[in-house]
Design a protein that fits this description.
Layout (H helix, E strand, L loop, with lengths): L2 E7 L13 H6 L6 E3 L1 H7 L5 H12 L2 E8 L9 H18 L4 E5 L12 H13 L5 E5 L7 H5 L3 E4 L8 H16 L5 E8 L5 H4 L6 H12 L4 E7 L12 E8 L2 H17 L11 H11 L4 E4 L15 H8 L5 E7 L1 H10 L4 E6 L11 E11 L2 E3 L9 E3 L3 E6 L2 E6 L9 H4 L10 E4 L15 E4 L33
Parallel strand pairs: 1-3, 1-4, 4-5, 5-6, 10-18, 10-19, 11-17, 11-18
Antiparallel strand pairs: 2-3, 7-9, 8-9, 12-13, 13-16, 14-15, 16-17
């Protein structure tokens, strides 16, 4: 029975964010044990809608022995402290050496990890794994759709298999694809070779959404190409434009069966199609006042306000106050803001107690780029432990932990105050504190696109609102220093270079 090493080492690094990501952040994780090894990986992730969950399930289906080494994926944040990265990587590599001999390696990576010293951390991970297992053992990695894919990543892996969806509802399926292709390589039923075509485009998250054109059209082209003889996989990456590195941007990776020329021509074909549609990828944001007025005028909810600029799922602090202030000033009825991460305000609200009126200093405590701290007087409606399990289509069954959570009501506006930064993309984030999304007129969400998977079917209207922040969907408002150039839309270039 083939022996396959399984590991997950991921982080989405926003280089514009304040502070460093430390080893403690890896330990803390995103709501379940943050740094796991061995059987803890199996107990936590087997059967869950993640890539590693699929790796573990596929072992039974395909007949291999899964050797779980390590899994970690902290909340997106700033540059990773080099010592923290080195420590986690050493744990992974030591586990791999202890597991030898292996017949293959499956890695769950992200594709946008940046450390103090490494722009291309995933390229480094793959190269170090390759050093240990040698050139004959196949290595396949899954990637997030927001990966910034480098030539080194392609060089050191037999295949890179990225998500086809944003919101990311296909992680499990892509993990299955990776396991099947790895077994085909081990059994000499396929000889995967890859080719990369980088596209000089920075695409704001809303326009990477695969539920609508133009991204849905590009994914359809990729699926058509995958039906061609000899093509094993086509990955379209929208890129993570908040990592200021040379390899930032959109990309296409094609894996073919022993035919490097087929992989190259197919990758260039799809990259060219993205480039030709570049104007359709421009982000257009809606002023907050306009979006709120629409809801007040129509009276039909829920109207969703996507505050992508303060999205903790992309490394933002999640304590921005601009959207909250606008809703309070409008005295918008039946309105909710989810969430504002503010441990200090949570502690003060808990000290006051349920049903008590209190004045809190809310938000704006991480930096000065997401709105000021607000002095708000309201009452504490509810106190919760902030724990729930996702029931929507994204990462179904995965547990989340917002930390101690308070529903604080100011006039007509209820705001969820939490101890932890967390993207509230699953409706259970609200329902676990007694807020039913269907009953609200306006819901302000600290999310760029993921919320569409679960909240979208309930919405009467969705607006990507214009707020300040380090995850601003309009990438022309960010100041880059390290990008390769030229790069659209920062540079209005005429051809694919």
């Amino acid at each position: 029975m083939p022996r396959i090493a399984v590991a997950g080492f991921s982080h989405e690094t926003n280089t514009f964010a304040e502070g460093l990501t430390t080893f403690d952040d890896f330990l803390r994780g995103r709501g379940f044990p943050g740094l796991m090894s061995g059987e803890d990986v199996v107990r936590t992730l087997k059967g869950k809608a993640t890539c590693t969950g699929a790796f573990l399930d596929a072992a039974e289906e395909l007949g291999f022995e899964a050797l779980p080494l390590l899994w970690t994926f902290p909340q997106p944040s700033g540059l990773i402290e080099q010592a923290a990265y080195d420590r986690v990587l050493a744990m992974l590599l030591e586990g791999l050496e202890a597991a030898l001999p292996v017949d293959g390696v499956l890695l769950e990576l992200h594709g946008a990890m940046v450390t103090e010293q490494l722009e291309d951390a995933e390229g480094d991970i793959l190269a170090r794994v390759r050093e240990i297992v040698g050139p004959q053992v196949p290595v396949i990695a899954t990637l997030d759709l927001h990966a910034n894919i480098s030539p080194s990543m392609v060089e050191h892996a037999e295949a890179l298999i990225g998500y086809d969806t944003y919101p990311h509802v296909d992680a499990y399926e892509r993990g299955r694809d990776a396991a099947r292709l790895l077994m085909a390589a081990i059994e000499n039923r396929a000889r995967p070779v890859g080719a990369l075509a980088q596209v000089p485009m920075l695409i704001g998250p809303p326009r990477q959404c695969t539920l609508m054109s133009p991204m849905s059209d590009i994914i359809a082209l990729a699926h058509e190409a995958e039906r061609r003889e000899g093509v094993l996989n086509v990955t379209v990456a929208g890129g993570f434009p908040f990592a200021d590195i040379a390899d930032c941007g959109a990309a296409v990776v094609v894996t073919a069966d022993g035919d490097g020329e087929l992989a190259e021509t197919t990758a260039q074909e799809i990259a060219g199609a993205m480039w030709e549609r570049r104007d359709d990828f421009r982000v257009r944001l809606t002023p907050l006042a306009e979006a709120i007025e629409h809801a007040l005028r129509s009276g039909e909810g829920p109207v969703l306000l996507a505050d992508g600029s303060d999205n903790p799922g992309g490394g933002a602090p999640c304590d921005g106050t601009v959207m909250l202030q606008a809703l309070i000033e409008a005295n918008a009825p039946r309105s909710t803001v989810a969430i504002i991460a503010d441990p200090e305000a949570v502690a003060e609200a808990i000290a006051a107690g349920v049903g008590r009126q209190v004045t809190l200093r809310v938000g704006g405590k991480t930096d000065d780029r997401h709105g000021p701290t607000l002095a708000l007087t309201g009452y504490v409606r509810l106190i919760s432990d902030g724990r729930f399990a996702n029931r929507g289509p994204m990462y179904t069954g995965v547990e989340a932990d917002m930390g101690r959570t308070v529903v604080f009501v100011v006039g007509e506006v209820e705001v969820m105050l939490t101890e932890q930064r967390i993207q509230p993309y699953d409706c259970q984030a609200l329902r676990c504190v007694g807020i039913e999304p269907r009953d609200r007129l306006l819901i302000g969400l600290k999310s760029a696109v993921h919320f569409r998977a679960d909240y979208g079917p309930l919405a009467s209207a969705i607006f990507e609102v214009d707020t300040p922040g380090i995850h601003n969907p309009d990438v022309t408002r960010l100041h880059f220093r390290h990008l390769r150039g030229p790069m659209w839309p920062l540079d209005e270039i005429d051809r694919l270079t």
